[in-house]
Amino acid sequence: MKAEHKTYEINEYVYLCESKIHNKGVFALRPISKGTKIIEYKGELISKEEGTKREEESIKLSKKDPSKGATYIMEVDEEHDIDGDIEENYSKYINHSCEPNCEFEVKGKQIWVYALKSIKPDEELSCDYGFDFDPENPFQHPCLCGSKKCVGYIVQKEQRGKLIEHLTKIKLLKK
Length: 175
Hints:
By secondary structure, this protein is an alpha+beta fold. It is built from two helices and eleven strands. A hairpin with a 4-residue loop joins strand 1 and strand 2.
């Protein structure tokens, strides 16, 4: 994929541009080697309780306006989250993919984005956002990544089998 309009250079590795996946995305300026620390996921360090509250509020807002991301809350540890919904957090525009080329890693009270594999210039960065499968609300986070392994919803890799099983049951019940 070749991004058409470079809109904003973030750092020596990446720029922000319109995404074919969702809204805006983060793209490689130059080749990025596997294992490279690319960008920090910045935000306000908050308690778990506050993180849960803000996440619920942001999901409600995204349902009213689908152009917004569902949530920018990331887990730091058992007591803290980072609310990445701040203007200077460009890594919040890294979209989900069922076949990601990056991952988030917690280092102390910071979250960094690392390359899982080599990334080509103008390739969009993507991570697996790893939402838990919720059988009560399995369609909460639709996935638009378009990868060959896409299951249609943003669910962590280890739980995608549960989602597929659930979807199969629903289709069988509709027949």
